[in-house]
Amino acid sequence: MSTVRKLPRIVRRRSKVHGFGVYAAEAINKNTRIIDYAGELIRNSRSGAREARYLKQGCIWVFRVNRVWSRDAAVNGNIARFINHSCQPNCYFQIVGHTIWIRASRPIRAGEELTYDYRTIGDKTIPCRCRPGCTNKL
User: Fold this and answer.
1) Per-residue pLDDT at 2
2) For residues 103 and 29, what is the distance between their CA atoms, to the nearest angstrom?
């Protein structure tokens, strides 16, 4: 008999970091899988134009899976796309095949905003808003 693990409850609401954010609706233990980063699986050769369009809006919706594939969360994505970046995050991502899991890097309290380090590559034109005075760019 297999055990089905239930993912923790999370909610989307306005964020002090940027636009909308995702918050824990219950306490989450360290290393718990929280949600998969859903979206259309596209070849990296097709992702450039989409990424440029989203960056003009101040958003990062395309997540690089590997050297060949990316996930575009603006197409068939879920609320994971609203998890904001932080230079001091409480989550991390884990890539398993073509699935991107967001996991807790430490215990997370109910009501706490979820964040992870986007580890962006490229021009880094978007200012980081993770905390006052942060000089990093995404």
Assistant:
1) 59
2) 9
Which residues lie across from 24 on neighbouring strands? 10
- Which residues share a beta bridge with 101? 36, 94
The DSSP element (H or E) to which 55 belongs, if any, is: helix 44-56
How far lies 127's CA from each of 34, 38, 40, 130, in Å? Answer: 26, 25, 26, 9
Pairing of strands 84-85, 115-116: parallel
User: What is the pLDDT, as a whole number, of residue 122?
Assistant: 67
pLDDT per position as a tens digit, 44-95:
999 988 888 888 887 788 999 999 999 999 999 999 999 999 999 999 999 9
Domains within the chain, CATH numbers bracketed = 10-116 (2.170.270.10)
Tell me how crowded residue 83 is: count the other CB atoms within 10 A of its CB. 28
123: β partners: none
Q: Could you give the CA distance from residue 75 to residue 114 in angstroms, rounded to a whole number?
A: 22
